[in-house]
Structures are given as C-alpha cells and as structure tokens.
C-alpha cells in the first residue's frame, strides 16, 4: 500500500471508480464566515484537497467562498456535504440538495451523504441520492452513521451500494464488525471524530508518540490510514491543520497497530446511530 505514504496525491478508489483523498478537513463546529474560510484556505495551502461539510454545520456558504478563493482548480478538490435529518424523504432531499449546492456555489458535489439513518425516511432519501447521481449533480453517493442493518436495507431496496460510510471511528470505538462488512461490500469507511474530540491522553498513545517522534494525534491518524480508513480531522487552527497532515512519513508496526486496536471500549463520544432523536 505504497499510496499510504503519498501525502496528498494518493487515495483509495471508491466502488464507483471515483478517487477520494485519504485525508480531508472536517469543518463541524467551524463558524460560517471568516473562521471556516480561513480553515479551508489554510488546509488547501497545506495540501489538503478534500473538505467535508454538511447542511447541519451551517457553514456551506463559507466553505463555498473559500473554494472559490483558494487558488486551486475546482476539479482538483473533493467536496462532501450531507442532507440533514429534517430534510430527509425523497422530494425534500432533492430540495435540500439544491439549497446546499446553491450555498456552496458549485455545479456539482463530489460526495453527498445521508447524515443519519432517520427511521422511516432514510430508504427514500437513498433513492433521492441515486436520482441526483443519475442526473449528474453528484459524482458519488454514500451514507454516514449507518449500522450494518441500515446498509443492508438500502442495498436490498435499490441494488446500489454506498461508496462511503462515514462513522465515528477511533481507538476507543474500533467498529470491527462494521469495518469487516464494509470491506466485504466495497464500502469505504471514513472516520469522523478520529481524534476522540481531543481525548488523546491515553498512556499508549503518549508512549507511541515518543517512540515514533510524532504527536498522539498523528499516531491515531496513521492508525486509521493503515487500516484503509479515510480520516477527516476537524480544526480551525493553522498549526493543528498542518500537524494533522503529518502522518504520511512513517509506518506503525503491526504490533503497535494491534495495541491501539486493543484500546477499544466501544465508547462513543457522539450519538448512537440506533438511538438518536434529532
């Protein structure tokens, strides 16, 4: 997997033939306007080419402005956004997509995701995403926070396999069964909250940071990468955005990868996809 050492040029090929970078900038909780604009421009300057936003983040307009002003051609960037829960359903998803596209100021979206599996809605929402892709408005379609049973339902319904499942994934929540199923189905797993919302003060991570002369964050991001999981750490600070990209120039031993995996406690910092009320 030599591409795992390619800082920004490499990336996996999704099941629809589209390539996606291994590293992206997450902009959850980044304020619209100058804060998110600065974060996105900084990330692009560092070398990031993937930006992950969502309708629910309320910063698509700022992301769009940064894209227009960053000095990198649109076709060199990979932009993800997501349909929010109240907007799910077939017709309402089509309308919500147009709102997001207009806010971003883009002719097309690289990856559009169902943000959460809203009971009674996500199956029709998935059909709307398929339609939008057929219309050429989205290059790739996927989901976020889907469990195995959610994935099976939409695949059985439509025969269309999501290209990506973006989920909470980190050393305390290693999602072994979900990762195995995704690999079997050709679904690319993507980690949100990979840095455990800053809860990196685990003795093993500190020990490995010393061993490899890296930060605990870089250790975790490299661990993601060596399992073939895309990672989208969030930050609005220029030094942290640069630091988060510094995990392509070393390799964790198999023993250290396993040691990190053994930290698993099935602990979520975010909501449970089978029990949420928003």
From TrEMBL:
Superkingdom classification of source: Bacteria
List GO molecular-function terms, semicolon-separated: oxidoreductase activity
Checking InterPro entries in the record gives:
AKR (IPR020471), AKR5G (IPR044500), Aldo/ket_reductase_CS (IPR018170), NAD(P)_OxRdtase_dom_sf (IPR036812), NADP_OxRdtase_dom (IPR023210)
Pfam families per record: Aldo_ket_red
Stored Gene3D superfamilies = NADP-dependent oxidoreductase domain
This entry's Enzyme Commission designation comes to 1.-.-.-
What keywords tag this UniProt record?
NADP, Oxidoreductase
* Start and end residues of each NADP-dependent oxidoreductase domain: 23-264
List the signal peptide residues.
Answer: none
Q: Into which family does the record put it?
A: Belongs to the aldo/keto reductase family.
Per its record, how is this protein called by name?
Oxidoreductase YtbE
From what organism does this protein derive?
Paenibacillus pseudetheri
Q: What does the record give as the organism's lineage?
A: Bacteria, Bacillati, Bacillota, Bacilli, Bacillales
């Amino acid at each position: 997997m030599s591409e795992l050492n390619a800082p920004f040029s490499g990336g996996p090929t999704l099941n629809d033939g589209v390539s996606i970078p291994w590293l992206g900038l997450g902009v959850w909780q980044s304020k619209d306007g100058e804060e998110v604009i600065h974060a996105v421009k900084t990330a692009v300057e560092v070398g990031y080419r993937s930006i992950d936003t969502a309708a629910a983040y309320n910063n698509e307009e700022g992301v769009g402005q940064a894209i227009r002003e960053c000095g990198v051609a649109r076709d060199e960037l990979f932009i993800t956004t997501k349909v929010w829960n109240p907007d799910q359903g077939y017709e309402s998803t089509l309308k919500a997509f147009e709102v997001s596209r207009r806010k971003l100021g883009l002719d097309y979206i690289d990856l559009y995701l169902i943000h959460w599996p809203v009971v009674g809605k996500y199956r029709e929402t998935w059909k709307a995403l398929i339609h939008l892709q057929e219309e050429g408005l989205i290059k790739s379609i996927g989901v976020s926070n889907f469990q195995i049973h959610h994935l099976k339902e939409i695949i059985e319904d439509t025969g269309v396999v999501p290209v990506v499942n973006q989920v909470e994934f980190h050393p305390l929540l290693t999602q072994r069964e979900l990762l195995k199923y995704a690999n079997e189905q050709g679904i690319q797993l993507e980690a949100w909250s990979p840095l455990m919302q800053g809860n990196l003060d685990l003795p093993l991570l500190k020990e490995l940071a010393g061993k490899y002369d890296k930060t605990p964050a870089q250790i975790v991001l490299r661990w993601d990468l060596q399992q073939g999981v895309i990672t989208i750490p969030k930050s609005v600070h220029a030094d942290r955005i640069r630091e988060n990209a510094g995990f392509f120039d070393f390799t964790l031993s198999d023993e250290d990868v396993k040691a990190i995996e053994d930290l698993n406690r099935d602990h979520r910092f975010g909501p449970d996809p089978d029990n949420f009320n928003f």
